[in-house]
């Protein structure tokens, strides 16, 4: 669910726009390091994948449904900088071509769903990785933990922005409770699906998972030569 | 793929707005929406003026109103939020049809509905009258970083390919008796999404190699 036009006042929208521009500028430099000249095609396809993944709906409560936000998922699969770019472009396309999320709220949406969700998701993933054993098998649970913290973090950030530039006098504690409660439920769906998706990719193509590179690098190549069978002539 | 090659929200036409340069339309949209958002919500007639202006613009493009109207459903979640607002907001309360509602909440709900609706209609007008490729050229002219434009170009190009791939996977799952929405089948659904990621990433690698073999040097000529 994206913030529409008029939800936050104009100064807050402009300020979050400036934050978003700065964040995307940093991500542009970082993504070059993650992907070098493959950045454009691969980030483009990963962005498309995130968009398609966001069409996955799951029931939340009372007949409503939430969808995958994909911040933590993209960060673990493609690297945090690439993920920020992908999510930002997804939001840009949704705002310009599908009118999903206001054009003046684009900065707000990028700040919340691309910057906060990806950065918190990635930090949560890295924190879990330092605690869990350094094995390939601990990458999916670490990614799930990253997803678990990223969704409520975006909800809290939204409440903070609303406190600064909200347009209705809603008591902040009510809003915070509602946002946190709701997004914790969404976060659970996000957690389970992120964990399983990363698990599925790690099982087949661990080399594609950015978050698993550190673990893969510590594995040593082991060359096993078959024993000389008895009686073989050389 | 026998379908048309515009994006799903584009409505082919030859009006003045269809032919206007995309970067001007983008600047006009952002400027218009900033003015709308900054307008105090108590100025009711001004919003009427904005709405009339928008209706006049849409009429001049020849895009049917029903076409825009049908696509305005993306706004529905926020309509629900706006409806809730008078119930949860604080401040002096007033009686409407036997319900006790917050006055500032009602005002805020009006403001949100008016601004969000104008925003959705204005954005849809831009989407309906601009080809994606022109939009990309417009962003390029507005000095949006080249890498962002390139990523967006790939996204626009492969959007239908990847979502159709996802759709085929979901159809396949459903035909085997799996309900992708049910939490019981999340592991299966996630396996498919993981496969979709691998396919998308590998497609990206293939596209990159194909571009290199055609002389890609990091710049794009749209």
Automatic annotation (TrEMBL), chain A:
Topology of this chain in the membrane: Multi-pass membrane protein
Protein name from the UniProt record: Energy-coupling factor ABC transporter permease
Swiss-Prot/TrEMBL keywords: Cell membrane, Membrane, Transmembrane, Transmembrane helix, Transport
Listed GO CC annotations: plasma membrane
UniProt-listed GO biological process terms: transition metal ion transport
Membrane-spanning intervals of the chain: 7-28, 40-60, 72-97, 103-125, 137-164, 184-204
Lineage: superkingdom: Bacteria
Subcellular location as annotated: Cell membrane
Species the sequence originates in: Nocardioides donggukensis
TrEMBL record, chain B:
GO biological process, one term: cobalt ion transport
Sequence intervals crossing the membrane: 20-38, 44-65, 72-89, 109-128
InterPro entries reported for this sequence: ABC/ECF_trnsptr_transmembrane, ECF_CbiQ, ECF_transporter_component
Keyword Transmembrane helix annotated: yes
Ribosomal protein is among the record's keywords: no
Keywords associated with the record: Cell membrane, Membrane, Transmembrane, Transmembrane helix
Membrane topology listed for this record: Multi-pass membrane protein
Location relative to the cell: Cell membrane
GO CC annotation, single: ATP-binding cassette (ABC) transporter complex
NCBIfam families reported in the protein's UniProt record: ECF_T_CbiQ (TIGR02454)
Protein name, as recorded: Cobalt ECF transporter T component CbiQ
Gene designation per UniProt: cbiQ
């Amino acid at each position: 669910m994206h913030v529409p036009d008029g939800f936050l006042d104009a100064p807050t929208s402009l300020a979050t726009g400036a934050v978003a521009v700065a964040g995307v500028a940093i991500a542009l430099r970082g993504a070059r390091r993650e992907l070098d000249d493959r950045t454009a095609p691969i980030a483009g396809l990963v962005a498309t994948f995130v968009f398609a993944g966001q069409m996955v709906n799951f029931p939340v409560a009372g007949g409503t449904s939430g969808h995958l936000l994909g911040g933590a998922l993209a960060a673990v699969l493609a690297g945090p900088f690439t993920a920020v770019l992908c999510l930002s472009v997804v939001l840009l396309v949704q705002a310009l071509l599908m009118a999903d999320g206001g054009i003046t709220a684009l900065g707000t949406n990028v700040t919340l769903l691309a910057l906060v969700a990806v950065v918190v998701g990635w930090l949560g993933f890295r924190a879990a990785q330092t605690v869990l054993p350094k094995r390939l098998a601990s990458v999916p649970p670490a990614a799930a933990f990253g997803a678990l913290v990223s969704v409520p973090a975006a909800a809290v950030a939204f409440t903070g922005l609303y406190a600064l530039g909200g347009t209705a006098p809603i008591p902040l504690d009510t809003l915070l409770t509602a946002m946190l409660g709701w997004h914790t439920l969404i976060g659970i769906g996000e957690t389970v699906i992120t964990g399983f998706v990363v698990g599925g990719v790690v099982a087949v193509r661990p080399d594609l998972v950015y978050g698993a590179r550190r673990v893969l690098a510590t594995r040593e190549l082991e060359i096993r030569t078959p024993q000389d069978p008895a009686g073989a002539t050389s | 793929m026998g379908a048309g090659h515009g994006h799903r929200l584009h409505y082919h036409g030859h009006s003045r707005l269809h032919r206007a340069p995309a970067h001007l339309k983008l600047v006009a949209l952002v400027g218009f929406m900033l003015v709308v958002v900054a307008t105090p919500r108590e100025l009711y007639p001004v919003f009427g003026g904005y709405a009339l202006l928008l209706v006049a613009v849409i009429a001049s493009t020849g895009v049917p109103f029903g076409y825009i109207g049908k696509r305005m459903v993306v706004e529905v979640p926020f309509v629900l939020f706006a409806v809730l607002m008078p119930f949860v907001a604080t401040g002096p309360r007033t009686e409407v049809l036997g319900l006790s509602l917050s006055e500032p909440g009602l005002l805020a709900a009006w403001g949100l509905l008016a601004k969000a609706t104008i925003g959705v209609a204005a954005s849809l007008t831009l989407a309906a009258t601009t080809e994606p490729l022109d939009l990309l050229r417009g962003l390029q002219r507005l000095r949006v970083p080249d890498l962002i434009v390139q990523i967006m170009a790939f996204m626009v190009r492969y959007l239908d390919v990847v979502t159709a791939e996802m759709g085929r996977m979901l159809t396949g799952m459903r035909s085997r008796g799996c309900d992708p929405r049910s939490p019981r089948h999340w592991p299966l659904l996630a396996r498919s999404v993981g496969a979709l990621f691998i396919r998308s990433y590998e497609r990206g690698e293939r596209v990159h190699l194909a571009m290199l073999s055609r002389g890609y040097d990091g710049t794009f000529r749209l």
